[in-house]
């Protein structure tokens, strides 16, 4: 694992407590060393957080509990709900059905 944190010259790409600007430069070095020119030119590499955002949104829309999604994303639940609250769409019928079922627990229908 340590070799993944070193550039070709042997210096650390992202030593502990490195300022964020150095981490971004380190990420660029890692990408350049590990991806092909075609992959680097891909639109997906222009904004890699779009992929992360899509993953978080997909999990939320798949009804994964917010606590689990927040832990996976490295967020608090408060940050997760503030940032992604508008991303959960098309599930109103699911929530209404669950609330209706909860009101009628133990009843014969």
Q: If you had to describe this structure to a student in words, what would you say it looks like?
A:
With 109 residues, the protein is an all-alpha fold. The protein has seven helices and no strands. Helix 4 (49-61) runs antiparallel to helix 5. Helix content is 60%, strand content 0%.
Keywords:
7 helices; single chain; 109 residues; mainly alpha; 60% helix
How many individual β-strands? 0
- What's the mean pLDDT score? 76
How much of the sequence is in beta strands? Answer: under 5%
* Helical content (DSSP H or I, runs of 4+): 55-70%
Task: Report, as a whole number of angstroms, the end-to-end distance.
Answer: 59 Å
Helix/strand/pairing class, anyone?
mainly alpha
Number of helical regions = 7
Low-confidence stretches: 14-21
Q: Nearest-angstrom radius of gyration?
A: 21 Å
The SSE string, one letter per element, is HHHHHHH
Instruction: Characterize the main sheet.
Output: none
Shape: elongated
């Amino acid at each position: 694992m340590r070799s993944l944190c070193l550039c070709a010259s042997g210096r650390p790409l992202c030593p502990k407590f490195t300022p964020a600007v150095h981490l971004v430069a380190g990420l660029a070095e890692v990408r350049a060393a590990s991806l092909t020119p075609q992959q680097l030119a891909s639109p997906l590499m222009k904004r890699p957080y779009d992929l992360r955002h899509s993953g978080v949104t997909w999990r939320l829309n798949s009804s994964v509990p917010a606590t689990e999604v927040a832990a996976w994303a490295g967020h608090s639940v408060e940050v997760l709900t503030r940032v992604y609250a508008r991303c959960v769409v098309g599930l109103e019928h699911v929530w209404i059905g669950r609330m209706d079922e909860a009101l009628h627990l133990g009843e014969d229908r």
